[in-house]
Amino acid sequence: MSERLILHEYAASGNCYKVRLTAAHVGVALELHEYDIMKGETRTPEFLAEIDANGRIPVLQIGDRFLPESNAACFYLATGSPLIPSDRFDRADMLRWMFWEQYHHEPNIATLRFWLRHVGMDALGEVRRLQLVPKRQAGIAALELMDRHLARRNWFVGDHMTIADICLFAYTHVADEADFDLELYPAVTHWIERIMSDPRYILFDSELVLALDA
Amino acid sequence: MSERLILHEYAASGNCYKVRLTAAHVGVALELHEYDIMKGETRTPEFLAEIDANGRIPVLQIGDRFLPESNAACFYLATGSPLIPSDRFDRADMLRWMFWEQYHHEPNIATLRFWLRHVGMDALGEVRRLQLVPKRQAGIAALELMDRHLARRNWFVGDHMTIADICLFAYTHVADEADFDLELYPAVTHWIERIMSDPRYILFDSELVLALDA
User: Fold this and answer.
1) Those residues with Cβ within 8 angstroms of residue B169's Cβ, 6 or more apart along the chain or in another chain
2) Could you read off the pLDDT of A50-99 as tens digits, one per residue?
């Protein structure tokens, strides 16, 4: 990869951490540009015009091209590496878990973490408050599904780590920050330990970032 | 493709239609197994044990293997066809739009369509009622983003149709069923016409299915 790689990100975001963890696994360096989403820095006219019209991070910049959506950025970085299976079914099955993560996992576990830890209960409006219980239930269902799946295997797809594991790991390993009890999911816990014991593992440091922001 | 391909589906679901439209484009025949989600047919112990532990359709069955998640099924079917770009950036950018569809488009436009047309206003509980306005606003934002993107190009990625177009088309072209006014989005409307004029196009027939169900 000869083009300059810039990650436009917010360090406390698990979606951004996915991309950094993938980069660490494939051994490429990312230049980090930080934005404070709590201060609206991804909704400025400049950001919307130049980086992402959707106003969100992460965005992976490859030379002068911009790639939003965390899971797509992971796919780009991991292309040609063992993190993406070469088998046709396994590759589609990896994407299955990544689409599942965006639909059934992230909107529940990551959103609850954001509401509880970043926004704060006192600042939650009525619409969000009423979603606390359904999102809690859906988050538990997601963790239960992962636990049943991992009870029979070490990795989500095939016999080694793929970006499906990395993308699911990002918000799962900090699910306690959204008041989920990870001890209830032993297969998930072992899978988390498996990922954290890899020599290419890098820390999220979300607690550090939250503390720095405060 | 020599293995038997079965689509476990509900014909009125746009997520299932994506997979049928992709199959039509690549010229493969799918055997269709219908389930009525309104009657809980995807939550039976048999379905959960054999087809998808997540209890949802569509699921693409390839021989004796099962692939949930509509966008992953489209990726599997389109592998090796022009519907998936061979360029590294374009392929990731196609996935970008497919992840965006699952996060920013489907939970708003498809969910409102489901609530308004299948569940019905009278049967909507308080939590859902309070989400009508935020989902309406997010759905409009999604259509506006698509319209701005398509104002400068014919297809979402590159210079020909990819599965990003197919996956976004499924619920966009029936957004009027969720009370969105597609006439407000001229570039989207032209893109819809472009897809519908392709000789490989097949009809959703959601109105027919809704009528048959009633």
Assistant:
1) B18, B21, B191, B192, B195
2) 999 999 999 999 999 999 999 999 999 999 999 999 999 999 999 999 99
Q: Which residues of B touch A54 (CB under 8 A)?
A: 100, 104, 145
Cβ-proximal residues to B3 (8 Å cutoff; 6+ apart), any chain: B62, B63
Alpha helices in A118-205 (DSSP H): 126-150, 163-172, 186-196
**Which residues in chain B touch residue A43, judged by CB atoms under 8 angstroms apart?**
none
Which residues does B92 contact at the CB level (< 8 Å), separation at least 6? Answer: A67, A72, A73, A75, A76, A79
pLDDT in tens, A118-133: 899 999 998 899 999 9
In a mutagenesis test of the A interface, which of B13, B59, B69 is the best target, namely the one with the most A β-carbons within 10 Å? B69
Size of chain B in residues: 214
Instruction: Using CB atoms, pick whichever of A102, A127, A145 lies closest to residue B131.
Output: A127
Structure ipTM: 0.95
